[in-house]
Amino acid sequence: MTTFKHYLMRFAAFFILILFPAVGRGQSSVDSTHAPVMDFIGGKSFDFGRIPTGPETRHSFEFRNSGRSPLILRLAQTSGGGGMATWSKEPVMPGKKGSITYIYLPQTPGRFWKTITVFSNAGPEVSLQVTGTVVPRTENADSATQTAPLRQ
Questions:
Q1: How many helices and strands (H and E) does the chain possess?
Q2: Distance (Å) of CA 112 to CA 35, 43, 64, 72, 101
Q3: Count of CB atoms situated within 10 Å of the CB of 10
Q4: Strand partners of residue 123
Q5: pLDDT tens-digit profile of 22-63?
Q6: CATH class of 38-144
Q7: Which element (helix H / strand E) includes 61?
Q8: Helix residue ranges per DSSP H, the chain
Q9: Spans of all domains in the chain
Q10: Of 60, 79, 87, 152, which residue is least crowded by CB atoms under 10 Å?
């Protein structure tokens, strides 16, 4: 009888030490299914093409919260100078849309590449990219606003 109790206590200790933590990990994965999800409509990158120096240029990255809880954007941080980001300040409810707008002031002619890093309660930060080429305003206005022709 003592041997039976000994094995029973070992089994109980095994069950408590090994199986309970596994159950706890399973519950945390269930909680993540209720988290907000930021799905971008139209992608996470945008090419302005050729833009003239001077007036500000903007692009809005639109997203949908396809998760099951409100999405809260904490910060949209831009790289380098010449640009800034604005974003939806109110929580974006499940199934609803929000946006992050990048505003660029093209001052110096040449190619540019900027990153907008978005911090939210949806998990790890998300990186958005904008690129383009700034041309001097003295160029023909028609050629400054068109992108380069496609190669065939």
A1: 3, 8
A2: 35, 19, 28, 29, 17
A3: 10
A4: 120
A5: 444 443 333 567 899 999 999 999 999 999 999 899 999 999
A6: mainly beta
A7: strand 57-65
A8: 2-14, 20-32, 141-144
A9: 1-32, 38-144
A10: 152
Joined together, the tokens standing for residue 63 give 């997203």
Show the tokens assigned to 87: 């974003």
Question: Cα dist. 84→77, 103, 104, 108, 145 in Å?
Answer: 8, 5, 7, 16, 21
- In angstroms, the CA 3 to CA 18 distance is 22
The two three-digit tokens of residue 71, written as one number: 């999405």
Question: CB under 8 Å, gap of 24 or more: what pairs does 8-11 form?
Answer: none
Closest CA to 71 of 127, 130, 118, 129: 118
Alpha carbon distance 32, 12 (integer Å): 30
- Is the pLDDT assigned to residue 9 strictly greater than 70? no
| Cβ-Cβ contacts under 8 Å for 115 (sequence gap 6 or more) | 78, 79, 127, 128, 129
Rg (alpha carbons) of the chain, rounded to whole number: 26
Q: Using an 8 Å Cβ cutoff, are 104 and 68 in contact?
A: no
Do 53 and 94 contact (CB within 8 A), yes or no? no
